User: Which sequence fits this backbone?
């Protein structure tokens, strides 16, 4: 999992040795570890189908059980594998069903919690102000916090911070946990970590436009006397949100996708 967080793809020989060790050892904890490895490799786009099948065989060993969070993790891995190999990615039916159920329960549980916070006005000030700034650019298009994105087949994929569902645009307020703090890009800012990159791949594959607002922008805006105006200025000047709204709204009105 550490490799995925740091976006470091292990050598092929290391992956093979890890999978072989899991296959040899007969421990109940191996199922959890195999699920972790499957998620990490899928996140890094470093898992081929034979390796995936071997890992699923370890996870599905007789008598093995996983915590709900591990089942949810496995569902995420399966979604990411489908980006590379289509809908025919093999997985034992009972294991896949239980994993998808755990992932859906986690997503909808988070959504219910967020809706309760919104009703009680207990969401963070940043979330409220960023959503308000997005709404200023959205025109007549609905803006929704905590939206759950579905695939074309109706499968829940993931939850986004702020969405314009009609236009399939996601605005993500990416905190420090989304970045590799000691690995900088050309602009001198931290690079996205593996799971966040995987999130963006999944969204874009399913037709969503992703706008990211990193934590240093949020922190700077919240330190001003007019944070909503500062967030709006950033969205207008340093992202393509306005252009994406205009383009997708025009496409929708003309009946194109």
Assistant:
């Amino acid at each position: 999992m550490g490799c995925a967080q740091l976006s470091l793809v292990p050598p092929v020989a290391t992956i093979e040795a890890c999978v072989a060790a899991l296959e040899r050892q007969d421990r109940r904890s191996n199922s959890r570890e195999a699920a972790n490895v499957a998620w990490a490799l899928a996140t890094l786009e470093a898992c081929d189908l034979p390796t995936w099948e071997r890992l699923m065989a370890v996870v599905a060993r007789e008598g093995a059980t996983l915590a709900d969070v591990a089942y949810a993790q496995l569902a995420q891995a399966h979604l990411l594998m489908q980006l590379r190999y289509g809908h025919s990615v093999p997985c034992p039916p009972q294991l896949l069903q239980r994993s998808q159920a755990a992932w859906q329960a986690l997503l909808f549980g988070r959504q219910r919690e967020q809706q309760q916070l919104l009703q009680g006005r207990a969401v963070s000030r940043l979330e409220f102000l960023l959503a308000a700034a997005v709404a200023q650019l959205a025109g007549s298009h609905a803006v929704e916090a905590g939206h759950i994105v579905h695939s074309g087949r109706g499968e829940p994929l993931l939850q986004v911070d702020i969405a314009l569902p009609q236009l399939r645009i996601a605005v993500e307020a990416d905190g420090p946990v989304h970045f590799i703090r000691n690995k900088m890009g050309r602009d001198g800012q931290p690079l996205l970590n593996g799971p966040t990159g995987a999130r963006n791949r999944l969204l874009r594959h399913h037709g969503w436009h992703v706008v990211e607002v990193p934590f240093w922008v949020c922190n700077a805006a919240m330190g001003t006397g007019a944070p909503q105006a500062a967030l709006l200025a950033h969205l207008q000047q340093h992202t393509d949100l306005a252009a994406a709204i205009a383009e997708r709204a025009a496409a929708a009105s003309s009946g194109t996708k």
Notes: The chain has eleven helices and eight strands. The first helix runs from residue 2 to 5. The chain has a mean pLDDT of 92. The beta strands are 144-145, 148-150, 156-159, 162-164, 169-174, 179-184, 190-192, 209-214.
